[in-house]
Hints:
The structure holds two protein chains of two kinds.
Chain A: H1 10-26, E1 32-39, E2 42-49, E3 52-58, H2 63-73, E4 78-80, H3 86-96, H4 114-123, E5 132-133, H5 134-140, H6 147-155, E6 168-169, H7 182-194
Parallel strand pairs in A: 1-4, 5-6
Antiparallel strand pairs in A: 1-2, 2-3
Chain B: H1 5-24, H2 28-44, H3 54-76, H4 94-108, H5 111-122, H6 127-134, H7 138-155
Helix pairs in contact in B: 1-2, 1-3, 1-5, 2-3, 5-6, 5-7, 6-7
Amino acid sequence: MNTELFPVDHDDLAALHARLTRAADREGLLDLVYRTLDTPIGTLLLAATDRGLVRVAFEREGFDAVLDALAAKISPRILDDTARLEDTARQLDEYFAGARRTFDLQIDYRLSSGFRQVVQRYLSHIGYGHTATYKQVAETVGKPRAVRAVGSACATNPLPVIVPCHRVLRTDGGLGGYLGGLEVKATLLDLEHAA
Amino acid sequence: MQIPFERAVREHGATVLRVCRAALGVGADADDAWSETFLAALRAWDGLADDTNVEAWLVRIAQRKAIDVTRARARRAVPTDTVADSPAPDNDHAEVWHEVTVWHEVAKLPERQRLALAYHYLGGLTHVETADVIGGSPDAVRRAAADGIKTLRRTYAPKTGPA
């Protein structure tokens, strides 16, 4: 088909998309909304359900793959809704500017279960600018021998940056691992120490 | 359907808009039909079989929504003697002018040509599927779409390329 003869303006489609999102939201048809956000550590994808922020993803994870996984695990009724995630984006902007130390957001922990969720819920208690070791976290959550399980709970954190798994280090002071890459983990720790 | 709905909007939004504009003209009616199409699609998305041809499915919904919009328009129509003119050509905004006027030219086509163009040529439905939704034979659909395109090409001959 020759579509050059029948051009469709990008702005027209963007306006229709925004109208669709509002109508779908009004009718309660949206199970998930998402947006992307440019930050000093690269573009992040933010996704939320009606219960709260459910996923923060790094570009290296592949946003299409992340959305596919969210569709499979939660619901395929997903639309890009920049407006509904404006507050989350603003708080992240402030965090990266060194002007925010804690996030005031509703969190939906449904992507993690059992011990992983227990660990991830605990991580927000490690304050801005502080760090803990995997071993300390294991002890604090009452499973002192579950150091490796704490490691995997951090590695599978669906809400990096917001749930601060970057504040957990190895006992020898090594950075350990990070889904966004060790450089990103180091950048976040630098930011928090410098601010 | 397991695919994130957003992807369907991004991949097929332009096609559905072309279909709606060919069926209803540029403006609020086409915009309404587009919105109603994707809202209906979103409602049905969970239950849609994974092997569905999403574009053809959307185009068929758009066809039904276009009929709904046409009926609603007929109910609220106010008789008028004057018909709006096409906007005058403006060389500084040639692309915008083209975008508006091509749909005016589509609107001037005989209805069967216009609908064959909408659902077959722009919407990608087969001749048989298009005949199924707009009536007539598949062969008549093929001829109507070809005639419509021929008329438009006469109006919009490419400026470059072989004569």
